[in-house]
Amino acid sequence: MSLKRRNLSKYIDILSDFGWKFYFGREENKGNLINFLNSLLEGEHVVVDLQYSNVEEDGDEPSERKVVFDLRCIGSGGEIFLVEMQLQNQDFFFDRAVSYTSRTISRLSKKGKEGNDYELPPIYFVAVLGFRLDISNREKYYYTAKIIDELDQEVLYPKLSYKLLVLPNFNKSKTDLPTIMDQWMYLMKHLDEIEALPNYLDKRIFSRIFEVGELAKLTPEEQMSYISSIDRKRDYINTLAYAKKEGEKHGRIEAEAKAYAEKIVSARELKKSGVSDEIISKSLSLSLEVISKL
Question: 141 near 169, Cβ under 8 Å?
Fold first, then answer.
């Protein structure tokens, strides 16, 4: 089946397994990842260069499942970046993020010098999320955290950082993108609607995305891998939509059952008070047959 007939957009979807690693995980495109990280760390740290590292962290025991990061990189200054994109909602997301970074810290300390030298490099856990961390908060789209003193908000340990971007909460328009980070988030959500590099995106930062990201430029083998990645993403989205529909249906059934039960209770009380079945039927929209059996 042709690419056009599969209803694919012009550019490779960043929010697909293939697209994430294509734009950010290839040596020839690592400038994209450097630009993305610097947009997050503006005023805090400057990433000059990166080298990709093994994305697997072995467990403490051979039988333990391996923890896989989307991307694991080491900066030119020794800093470590754990970068992932996750569309699927997951319980205890923060627990998992802390567990992953803790495992990385454990590995680093074992490789340190002899004696009491526990000095660690800066470690950044960066996640782009396709789900809400807090369903009650539909506006906060950027979370940034360090270890701080709760009394005066002083940063006690600046080397461990968590940066989380929540895409469902990002609803800015293309005319309201004052920061490069805003532009990255807009691009991630809307790349499938764009036909060429637009004026509202900084050309110095995003030109490489549009230069290499055309689907037609992929080899036939890469196109097949990409299509498989998109099919998996669409299956997941369809599964979510079905689950939501069934949940809403179940919720309506429960609400209707609760309302009916409340009517029955009210009808019983009215009958005890001597109200006629006809009046009860009319006021509560219950049949005379149901009321007569109470």
Answer: yes
